[in-house]
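Morning. Coffee machine broken again, so started the prediction first thing and wrote up yesterday's gels while waiting. Chain of 941 residues, entered below exactly as on the submission form.
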Amino acid sequence: MKKNTLKRTLVGLLVTAGLSATSAVASPVAWDESGKDWLTQESEHFSVHFVDGHQQMATKALDIAERVRTEQLPFFKSAPQDRTEMVLVDDFDYSNGWATPLPYAQIRLFMSPPEDGGDLATNDDWLHMLIRHEYAHIMHMEMSTGVPKTLQSIFGRQAFFFPHALTPSMLLEGLAVYLETNEELGYGRLQSSNYAMEMRMEVASGEVKDLDEVVVADREWPLGYQYLYGAYFMKYLSDTYGEEKIQLFLQDYSRRIIPYFLINRSAKRAFGRDFDTLWLDFQGYLKAEFEPQLAQLKAQAVTGEDLQLTPFLQVTASSEKGLLVNRNNGEDRPEISAFDFQDQNWQPLAESKSVTSMSSHPQSGLAVSRLIHYADGRGYNDIFLFRDGDWQQLTERQRFRKVRWMPDGKQLIASRKEGGVSELWLLNAENKDTAVRIWRGDADTVLGSFDISPNGAELVASVKRPQQGWDLETLDLATKTWTKVTETKAAENSPVYLPDGRVVFSADYDGIFNIYALDIASGELEQWTRELGGALQPEWQQGAGLFYQAYESEGYQLRHLAEPKAVSTQQVSAYQGRYDFPPAAPNSVEKSEPEAYSPWSTLRPHNWLPVLQADDTRTLVGATTFGADALGRHNYQVLAAWDVDNEVADLNILYQYDNRWLMTLESTHDFDKFTQGNRTDYRITREDSVLLQRSHIFNAFEDQLSLHAGGVLDKESLVSEPDFASTTFRETNEALMGLAVTFDNREAYLNVPGTGWGHYVDLVAETNDVFDGDYDGQKYQAQWVATWDLPGRTTLTARLAGGYADDEAKSFRLGGNDLSEEAPLFGRDTQALRGYDESAQRGHRYATQRLELKTWLNRFERNWSLYPVGLGDLSGAVFVDSGAAWDAGKDRKQLTGAGVEITLEAKLGYNLTLPITVGYGHGFDSKLGKDEVYLSVVSDF
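Came back before lunch.
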């Protein structure tokens, strides 16, 4: 039997799109809020789409974008012919952005300035750096000449016709970081002490990463190292061969029609060596750059006692119980624990999720800020209080990222950023409705970390003023006036008051982040640490001393200095300095008047590909296309084909409106072979299926609980059959409408395969009585899936599922190894049971049970040179499946199977992770059970 030819073709095309370093379909903007309409404004080369109220930011974005295009054009020597679509979103409480050439050149800009202490903080203007980086991606990936350009003119914008979109992200991100950096003015990540720290510790490890690691960078430390290595590799190429050789490589590869395999040929033409050889030289370049400095730093090191090593910066706070740490190691469920300095042990206080800030008060308890991702597409921070062993939500969708208790324990001060503008608010811990804004900055001032003085009269903060770097300032809480504490070119960050009124903070006065204590009145500055990597995020614990986090070769090391001593002392005025960056948008370019957003100009098809497929039953000829509007709300994929041998049409249409509406329509044909003597012919049957689903009609409990509705039409009909067919075909038509309630609080952890912890529950009720069909009556189903976090990188998952259907409804099937059949909410009629054939049992009732132990086994994170094949993580599982399907009045026969699975992540085209599972299942039933080895490939399409 030949089944689902069209579906396999569509999946193949999706895999092809996934090989690109960019996504083929943009993620949607958040749902509309009442009274906030989307507008569009244009300049000569850009369109910007924004929510009404962000006009000033949109105007600035156009001015900056035109400036960036003018400055980058001499390097790339070409630019997109059509306008690049930029979308400003204020949906997230963290900094980010992305760019893609598919299905047209587009950039998404998060209106959330980076805060002090991070990689992105070294900028002249956050919006300028963001646009500079993302537009470098557009200019880079748009480069194409010769045959690729000709194919674009015929087939439009397909990933395989953009040679540079199919290069390793190390090259894409490295070039963008290289071009965002201005060595003369001192901004960009290659000018930051953060990047120098990270690469210095890579060299200190003695294991500078190989090329075949960096091109498939994923979960290994340091996270995001393709940016780091890529940027330094570009700097190495520029220093060694000159920038013009990088340009020559870009131009040469722009005409390569065969991706992946000819990238080294272009490297040889430009640099005289392939990338493998260049990388060996690059590793020596890094050692020569950092080893002399490392030798000097090792001889002078002053560090604290090691407490814990993690792949993430930990959120900390001092408390009467000891140092509070939100312990997140990437493999266990995060929890807030107190470190007892006297007993040298950890005391767990509460499990946690996405904590970004903490503050503790002796009487009022613990206040934290948590990042919550909502169903409407937003990621906002809110404040929670931990009292009497339970969490209480103080604010809802108020976006407060950082929080500090006032000394009286009755009020808190919290900071947020809205529309890219920093604010400070005074909150009442007992009455959330009395919040008062006490300060709002201008569009070019960014507020970072802050702390409140012991007497509650002022706060100290890291502040980035227009055209300057990060300095310390104090805010008088009575007069609401700011006073400069420092004015240097160092990145001063994470200030905390000491009991004596001094301020301890992290700064890179000598190019390396260390901990300093400053007497604001006298200006006396003491250096307390001399770290090899860097010392970050200090915290003072009464009775215990200084805690801070050191950047090390293996992760962030929490360290303790009980009695810090000054390793050097001088006046902070010795570091006096100003940046005085030039304006990010010195000129106002010509622009259109803002007008209401329309999706139609971007929604039209921008590409197509022919579909040709032939076998012994059919010859398919057709075409496929995909598209989306600039806001990413309307997404579609279409594949249509005509079978010229049998004169039937196959069709696959998918349309999705953000994450609320989903419609799929599929019409495919199956072929069953019959033989009688010398005669051979095929029965042709058609399967038509339609799915219409409305998700998130109602949401609650941080949108973990949702109500959905859906309808499924599934019709099987006979097209033709030979007169000697040995079996009779029964045409069927099922038309279901239903409602579903889901609860999902599952969490994923960096180093744990699959789900790390959490529960998933769904309850589904469907009816056949709304539309005419061959079936009548109701169907009810439910499932519960629970995953428990075990020590290390291991989990235990249990699943219980059950279903009931009226006798006139379509029966359920039990059997097979395809777990994906259990995933759909609506039209779900199959339950897997490994070790048994599909449809081993049928019935209008079913109950299934599953227990699975899964563990991480190994991490390869290696590619095969620059060929588009690599390996990621290896994991294994053992399972027991059990269940039965039966009809009313008939005996229930329980079937049980067990087996093992090994899952290996294939890395295809550098960017696509495809988990490939090989399993063995054994069915224990003597008649229906069997031994089977199976292969499955599951991805996140």
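The chain has a mean pLDDT of 94. Going to sketch it on the whiteboard this afternoon.
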